[in-house]
Amino acid sequence: MKGSRNKIFPLRLLWYANFGLFLSTLLHIHHFAFDDELDFANVKIGTYVLVEYSGKKTKSYYVGKVVSAQDNGYEIDFFRKCPKGNKFVKPNAEDVATVDKDQVKAVMPKPLDVGTTRRTKDSLVFNVGFEGLNIR
Asked: What single DSSP character describes residue 129?
């Protein structure tokens, strides 16, 4: 019994070291500060953006991927935010909409590669803090 514990212990340390690296990556979160003037040259097909929808009383923000660019806006494929963390998943029904350029508030950084299974690889995790924003 003692011999088996000694064989497993180094693997456990390796797992803790990798998990610590993963956590340290997530803890270096960048907080959003909207620019008054977004450089639309950075908004290209395939980039992830933060889109604002204004209601009567509140503003809601959605994360999406630019599918195509038009003269006055973009066609965006939207994701849904999971209840915990900064993880986003594709909805069951495709959610593609055309938005005006003034609705695009920020270009998102590249998502982190944190998935190891097919289910977790299908989700997006951004190294961004969304405090104070109504993210949907």
From this structure: E
pTM, rounded to two decimals: 0.71
How far is Cα 118 from Cα 65, in angstroms, rounded to an integer? 20
Answer whether 60's CB lies under 8 Å from 81's CB. no
Which pLDDT tens digit goes with each residue over 80-132?
Answer: 998 877 788 888 899 999 999 999 988 888 888 777 777 776 788 887 777 77
Q: Which amino acid is at 34?
A: F
User: What is the distance between the alpha carbons of residues 76 and 3, in angstroms, rounded to a whole number?
Assistant: 57
Q: Which amino acid is at 85?
A: G
Predicted confidence (pLDDT) per residue in 41-85, tens digit: 888 999 999 999 988 999 999 999 999 998 889 999 999 998 877
Q: Which fold has domain 2-129?
A: SH3 type barrels. (2.30.30)
* Short-list 75, 73, 77, CA closest to 63: 77
